[in-house]
Amino acid sequence: DGTLLDVSDSRANRRKFGRPSNQTCPGAFPKARVLSLCELGTRVLWRSVIGSYSTSEQTLALSLLKFLSRGMLLLADRHFGVAPIIYPLLARRVSFLIRVKKSQCFLVEKVLSDGSYLSTIYIGKNDRRAGRTGKTVRVIRYTHSDPNRTGYKEMHVLVTSLLDAEKYPASELANLYHVRWEEEIA
């Protein structure tokens, strides 16, 4: 996940990092965008990259993917549920469980025993219409009824590379996804 941090208001930092502004004036401090991979069991910030205020989290994420390998499971929020990040994860065979925006289009191709389904993600927005080949992902849609958890009564949509519904039941993956909030504490 990523965050913005204030940095010292110096000419060099203003040039390097930039700062937010509104219609009338610039923000008080330049901001560094920091994106980290966090080991959730220990809350250790394992790898981090620093970019400018204007650099997107998705752009920074691409430079973190090289630190992930088979045997790891990446949990990520909605900003990272896009094909330019998912495709490299699939190519490297890194397992992932990523929340995506509810509005993203994932057509039901095969319903699995736990109610999740297989679908295809495409690298380009017109690839489906053009009949180009995409990549298979599993989609899990759920709501939860715990008022103490983030997203109470809200539709959640997860995509994962863990395609086996018997080995990785949707309910267990949905519960696991919410462990991702441990990173916020770190």
Detailed description of the structure:
The chain is of the alpha+beta class and 186 residues long. Helix content is 22%, strand content 28%. The protein contains 6 helices and 9 strands, in the order βαββαβαβββαββαα. It has a 6-stranded mixed beta sheet. The longest helix is centred in the middle third of the chain and has 10 residues. The radius of gyration is 18 Å and the shape is globular.
Number of helices: 6
Uncertain ranges? none
Q: N-to-C SSE series?
A: EHEEHEHEEEHEEHH
Share in helix? 10-25%
Short description:
The protein has 186 residues and is of the alpha+beta class.
Based on the model shown, name its key terms.
186 residues, alpha+beta, six-stranded mixed sheet, three-stranded antiparallel sheet, 6 helices, globular
Topology:
Blueprint: E1 2-6, H1 11-17, E2 31-39, E3 44-52, H2 57-64, E4 73-76, H3 83-92, E5 95-100, E6 110-111, E7 117-121, H4 127-130, E8 135-142, E9 156-160, H5 170-177, H6 182-185
Parallel strand pairs: 4-5
Antiparallel strand pairs: 1-2, 2-3, 5-9, 6-7, 7-8, 8-9
